[in-house]
Amino acid sequence: MSDLRTLKSAFKGDILTPGDPGYEEAIARWAKNAARRAAVVAFVKDAQDVSRAIAYAKDAKLPIAIKGGGHNPSGASSSEGGLVIDLSRYLNGVRVDPEKKLAYVGGGATWETVDKVAIEHGLATVGGTVNHVRSRGYGWLSGAYGLAIDNLATVVTADGTIRIANDSENSDLFWGIRGAGSNLGVVTEFVLKLHPQRRTVFGGMVAFSPDTLEPFLDVTQEWWTNGPSEREGMIQAFTRGPDGQPCIICFMFYNGTEAEGRQNYKAFFDLSACASLTPLRPSFQNFVAGPGQNVYMKGAFAPEAFPRALLPQVFQRVVELSSSPDYIVALLMEYVPLHAVNAVPDDATAYRRGLTSNVLCAVYAKRDGEDALAYARDAARELTALFAGRSEDNLGYGNYSPDSDALPTGGTVPVDKAKVLFGSNYPRLQQIKRKYDPDMLFRKWFAITPAAA
Description:
Helix content: 25-40%
Structural class: alpha+beta
Radius of gyration: 22 Å
Distance between the termini: 28 Å
Mean pLDDT: 88
Largest sheet: 8 strands, antiparallel
Shape: globular
Strand content: 15-25%
């Protein structure tokens, strides 16, 4: 099927190539620097279309990338000269079974769609803290229900076979995709567990000026050390505000009423905030990460003990590295209770457990070019190294460090980084990779090398 005309004749969705109307929009990504000039963009309509696209790419010897939300700044959802399987145009719907408390979610749907459909039934699931993405991981409800990966899924594997994977059917594949994801196929549908959820929560953004940094950190340390409940969570960011002045941004979440939320975070509100925004919403998301910017991200895991002595140094370095108006630097620390996440045994899914909280550095470059991205990379590496040291073992959350130490050009990661990311689960993943993708067609994100025969 290496003839593109043959693929088009059987394909139900849309196929775009360079020069076609809509091609430039099709290769655009959330991060401007993640766009790549694909040879073929296949907007699939169903699992059969995915199978056909995989068969064509294999015959034509084209590298494959998979686009769901397209939120990866390394270019992992793009392919220079390759084929992109794009789920976002047609496989973006959500259907809820309120009796079974299940959501049937297209592989290209975003959390915003999931949230809006589910809450109509008074239900919700664990989703990302940014609502225009798809990911496997952490969300505002993780404190109560763990990660997003404990779901059923329909998967199209590398040989084009359509397989349903769950605890009882293709259980090895189900184990693998809950962490190794796109290494093992294209997920056309997720079946997610839903939970009862009130329609409004207390959440919003509060900004603090630098002169409150010391008491702010004291309050944070007391709140976090005392152990927040499963109903609460917070993301704090060291950055600069729209006026260019340094500030601390605090994204608060409390799964309850406004009165309960304000009482819960009273110690923070007693500090002198320079700006406060606390809208009540069916779900709460970080609305700062808008599309169309050059972005470099790098993550790390926070120390087990609250790094009180370190954080003033981190804040000062953020201020220094963001002094040029050409860059926005944001150092984010996630404070989401991890009891439910880490209660899952380490070998229950491909994603490791027993980890500490996430740290993320995102650097937005207003200029294009290698020099701007190199500055962004170096700044992010320096700031995350303050938490991780120079340890090769602290890559951080995989979705936050998609390209690790490399400039975000190829959207791939060296094999040794995959070994570090998956830890003791890596050998089992190699066995599963040999079974479902021995030719390594899927290798755009922490590529797993198949086990030797």
